[in-house]
Amino acid sequence: MPGPLTAVDPIGYQLAKRRSKPVWTDDCIMSLLQVTDIAFGYGAERLFRDVSFRLNAGERAALVAPNGAGKTTLLRIIAGELTADDGTVVIRKEATVGFYRQSHELGTEGTVLDALLSSFQQVLAIRAELDRARELAASGEPTDLTRLSRLEEQYQLAQGDELERRIQMIAQHLGFDNRALQRPVASLSGGERGRLHLGIVLAQRPDLLMLDEPTNHLDLDTISWLESHLTEYPGAVLVVSHDRAFLDNVCPHTLELGHKTFRSYPLTYTDYAIARKEILEREEALRERQQAMIDKTEEFIRKNIAGQKTKQAQSRRRMLEKLEKLERPEDVWQVAQRVQFRFSPAPRSGDIVLQATGLGARRGGIRLFHNLDLLVRRGERLAIVGPNGCGKTTLLNLLAGTGKPEDDGTVKVGANVFPGIFDQHLGSLELSHSAIDEIRSVRGDMNEDVTRAYLSRFRFWGDQPFQKVASMSGGERSRLALAKLLLEPRNVLFLDEPTNHLDIFAAEILEEALIHFEGTVVLVSHDRRFLENVSSRVLAFRTDGIEVFPGGYGQLDVQTPVDPAASCPADTEDRAQRRAHFEANKAASRAQQRKERRFRELEELIDQAEKDLARIQRAMMEAGDDWEKLAKWTAQQQKIETDLAYFMKEWSELGDELTS
């Protein structure tokens, strides 16, 4: 790959080493963004260091790391909102920067349309003058007609008409129709404010677009549109997201932010997740070999420093003193892998868990659904999907028994059912409580030491268990809510967007726990990879009603809808068989990815071997009658030809496997 996303050579940049605010410069001709040796920390605690990369127009990169590693902090440094401790951020002169934040910092004045147009004051001023000029020009006065013509030309040069079309298109894709554009911003929900903030940033069409968890408030169709929009985006895009499918579809480059190291991979997230393990294993093996050599050398020095081999021992000591010792490679995700989601053993429920009849609900005067019959059996993992505002959470609440009195229908709960609920708004947490208080509210028999030990499984270490909920991040609150839920014996789980604030590895660990959960799961999520891996049945809100599909979310496009009140054949499948099927599919997918990666590596090796052979043949011709050189080149030629034959054979066999 070319070097845009590799370490940056700062030569030619006339910038002080310690300048930490973004600099707009003509020097940065090739790269739209260039980050060099950025470091940041709080007090004596270093968050990250030696962060260097560059982005050109048209490039898209994912910034990945566990929660708390500093991803948002790095974006804020690039945006100029925070000052780094060291390093430089260089942005091409006159380039514009757009930053979508998780905090959705919006004013409450005006309408949705006003907010979307807020970044285009010059165009708005021309449009206001144009409207007045049209009224005056109705009189037919030549001066008014001339002024109208001049303003129309200015509006056209400012691309006013195109701007209005673009904003309307973006708004519609984000769920704001013409009527919604006139709604006051103050009336919007948190999710709507998030979508509006995203629309404002996208409408600006900045040269550098930075997105911090852009999919959190989007439904599946909107995420699909955003992917298409970003893959065709002409500027540079830097994304932070826990949505693995989104990262795979949008970003061909992955940047890994560690505490001590920063790595760039010219790979999508899925390929990166495989490659990073292989690289860490190779680096650790190299470190171990070096350490074995050091140990052996030190033993030789100890035995011979005072004997007949003193000079050799001294020479080896000097060699060790000059040797640069390899550090243990940093596993960025090791901290995330310590999270443990294990459900407490619960009694076995009856075969029929929920039997809903005639369910219906209205919100804000709008009928969401009506006359829905649904049967949920033991062991099902039912995913509820659909566009924003269609009633997914409302239906989940009705099934969980937390609907409103005016809702229609009945839900008959089966025998021996013990439900547990995860609310995406984390309403089960008391803001004034500490993490210890929250755990002991459901398990008063656990003393402080036992509670802290339990919380450490969810990455609450040191003094963090004493931290108040009000001061916790979204990820910390999610982990705490899950920690509470897992403590009690539950055999039916109702989960509303459980991965929203989890980092990627924590979401994968939760997936594994749910796959092996002995009970029943009803969930709402917009995380496609999570849905594909967890769901065994799908209830989909469509424009013409609700449909239920057998099989998981991954088979949604090829399945035929079934009667939601009927038993699904897959529901009676033995759980052990489902687990085995899941594990087999997972293993097959990983094997396929390894083969595809090896196939690409072989193509590169073959290309390089052919170039080396051509180089050697030129050298042999130049060697003339120099038999010593000819012998050397002939030996190298034979080795490369042997390697090439092996590469070609493996490449051919892999190609047959991948196309079969």
Can you give a write-up of this model?
There is one protein chain. The chain is an alpha/beta fold and 660 residues long. It has five domains: 1-96 and 206-267, Rossmann fold, CATH 3.40.50.300; 111-205, no CATH class; 273-333; 352-576, P-loop containing nucleotide triphosphate hydrolases (Rossmann fold, 3-Layer(aba) Sandwich), CATH 3.40.50.300; 583-659. Helix content is 44%, strand content 18%. It is built from 19 helices and 19 strands. A six-stranded mixed beta sheet has the order 6-7-8-4-9-10, with helices on both faces. Strands 15-16-17-13-18-19 form a six-stranded mixed beta sheet, with helices on both faces. Helix 16 (504-515) links the parallel strand 16 (492-496) and strand 17. Helix 9 (269-304) packs antiparallel against helix 10 (310-322). The model is unreliable at 1-19 and 568-574 (pLDDT under 50).
